[in-house]
Amino acid sequence: MSFKETFIVNGENLLKKIKEIIADGNVTKISISDKSGKEIMSFPVTIGVVGVVFAPIFAAVGALAALLTECKITVEKRKDDDVPPSNEPPKEEGTIIEVK
């Protein structure tokens, strides 16, 4: 499952906010829109990707920030399951568990 969060930032804080979002983790996709809602840039965020791969993206975001006065960042995040792992051994396939 995933959910979306939206942030409104000014151009000079855009790159800083993108780096913070990536550092927080659980992010699968980031989209940047102008203040009227038109999507300008969108990129996936892959688990375990090193900073070198993000260098061209950061350069593009930095150039974009110089042009925009205000923009909207939409972040798609994975929702972690809040169910703690069970100490029971895994059930065999085909076992029916009845929930009341």
Describe this structure in words.
- There is one protein chain.
- This protein has 100 residues and is α+β, with helices and mostly antiparallel strands.
- It has one domain (2-78): Tetrapyrrole methylase, C-terminal domain (Methyltransferase, Cobalt-precorrin-4 Transmethylase, Domain 2).
- Helix content is 28%, strand content 32%.
- The chain has helices spanning 14-24, 51-67; strands at residues 2-10, 27-34, 39-44, 70-78.
- It has a 4-stranded antiparallel beta sheet, covered by helices on one side.
- The radius of gyration is 19 Å and the shape is globular.
- The two termini are 24 Å apart.
- The relative contact order is 0.29.
- Residues 82-100 have low confidence and may be disordered.
Secondary structure elements and pairings:
Blueprint: E1 2-10, H1 14-24, E2 27-34, E3 39-44, H2 51-67, E4 70-78
Antiparallel strand pairs: 1-4, 2-3, 2-4
Helix pairs in contact: 1-2
Fourth CATH level, the homologous superfamily: Tetrapyrrole methylase, C-terminal domain
Oligomeric state of this protein: single chain
- Helix segment count? 2
H/E series: EHEEHE
CATH topology, anyone? Methyltransferase, Cobalt-precorrin-4 Transmethylase, Domain 2
Care to give the gist of this entry?
The chain is 28% helix and 32% strand. The chain has 100 residues and is an alpha+beta fold.
Observed structural traits:
single chain, 100 residues, alpha+beta, Methyltransferase, Cobalt-precorrin-4 Transmethylase, Domain 2, 32% strand
